[in-house]
Design goal:
By secondary structure, the chain is of the alpha+beta class. It has seven helices and eight strands; from the N terminus they run αββββαβααβαββαα. It binds zinc ion (ZN).
Length: 232
Amino acid sequence: MSQAGLPTTRDAARELVVLFARRLLAEHLVSYTAGNISTRIADEPDLVAVTPASTAYDTLTAEDVVMVRLDGTVVEGSRRPTSELPLHTLVYLDRPDIGGIVHTHSRAAMAVAAMGIDVPPILHGLVSACGGGITTAPYARGGTAEVATYTAEALRHRSACLLRNHGVLAVGPTLEHAYNAASTVEGVCDAYLRALAFGPVPEIPADDVERIRREQWAPAWASAGDGRTHGG
Ligand SMILES: [Zn+2]
């Protein structure tokens, strides 16, 4: 695999992880050491660059980023990878088309994940960034086969899902696509919780959801290499 838009060297992958880790912090999508992100590296399909365990994002450096094989073996780096590494590796093993993963414990999304409800296609940005309304995968203990099964189902034809009682799992052909999805999910969950105070929240008509998927989400996934963002 030499997927468009993926970093071409291990050093570039480390820098990319640091860049998006800083953005997570700046956008308040994570607190302290919570959450984690990873990217594949072009031409090294069995390798991912991932954030280390227990490291505050404001002090994270490229040297802290760990290179890990999809079987969990650390290839480079003096730090331990995130304890949530299987959340990443199981998705990458299942989906060769996925090049980047962002996992957050962002606040509004956690409230929705705690309730175990789905987020219907209530806002344009959710459909263009994630491919439609998103579901909450059932609770399962970290690193188990159940997590892999549940998340694989929840991520089918979508760029994100919620993890019951936990947080957000966003994916994409690139780390940038996954980041955009994670950021959008938090904003939409926040809006959804506010809107629910007024009663049932109207959904975008199915025809329009399909059109937005076809015209915006699908091309964004397919053309990940050209640096475009989507959803606004
Ligand atoms: Zn987590």
